[in-house]
């Protein structure tokens, strides 16, 4: 399965993930619907996907943010994992939505 390296920034309510695939910027704009988390940043995020078509439209996800990483599994298959720049003291389960765009 292909992978892409990128970053994610969150204020605890919404997040913006950025990856480059085949020299094209791929953005994941998301929001948490389960809980608000502390703000977080990861500069080392890996996105694993089956096809570029997986990274389009809007999808639900579930996962966790916390000690010391994040994992989001999207309803249609892709998985985003990363190491937090400033880990939390607990692992927080999250659910939400992400909208993918290419530019």
Could you explain how this protein is built, in words?
- With 103 residues, the chain is an all-beta fold.
- The chain is 0% helix and 62% strand.
- The chain contains no helices and eight strands.
- The protein has an eight-stranded antiparallel barrel with strand order 1-2-3-8-5-6-7-4.
- A hairpin with a 2-residue loop joins strand 2 and strand 3.
- It is globular and about 35 Å long.
- The relative contact order is 0.28.
- The mean pLDDT is 96.
- Distance from first to last alpha carbon: 22 Å
The mean pLDDT is 96
What is the β-strand count? 8
**Spatial order of strands in the largest sheet:** 1-2-3-8-5-6-7-4
Low-confidence stretches: none
What is the molecular shape? globular
Helix content: under 10%
Reading the helices and strands in chain order gives EEEEEEEE
User: What assembly state would you assign to the polypeptide chains in this entry?
Assistant: single chain
**Pairing-aware structural class of the strands and helices?**
mainly beta
Count of helical stretches: 0
How much of the polypeptide forms β-strand, as a percent range? over 45%
Biggest sheet: strands, sense, closure? 8 strands, antiparallel, barrel
Cα radius of gyration in angstroms: 12 Å
């Amino acid at each position: 399965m292909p992978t892409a390296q990128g970053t994610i920034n969150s204020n605890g309510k919404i997040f913006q993930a950025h990856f480059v695939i085949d020299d094209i910027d791929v953005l994941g704009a998301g929001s948490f619907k389960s809980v608000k988390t502390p703000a977080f940043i990861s500069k080392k995020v890996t996105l694993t996907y089956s096809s570029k078509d997986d990274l389009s439209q809007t999808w639900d996800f579930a996962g966790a943010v916390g000690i010391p990483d994040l994992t989001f599994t999207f309803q249609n298959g892709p998985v985003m994992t990363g190491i937090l720049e400033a880990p939390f003291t607990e692992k927080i389960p999250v659910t939400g939505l992400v909208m993918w765009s290419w530019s």
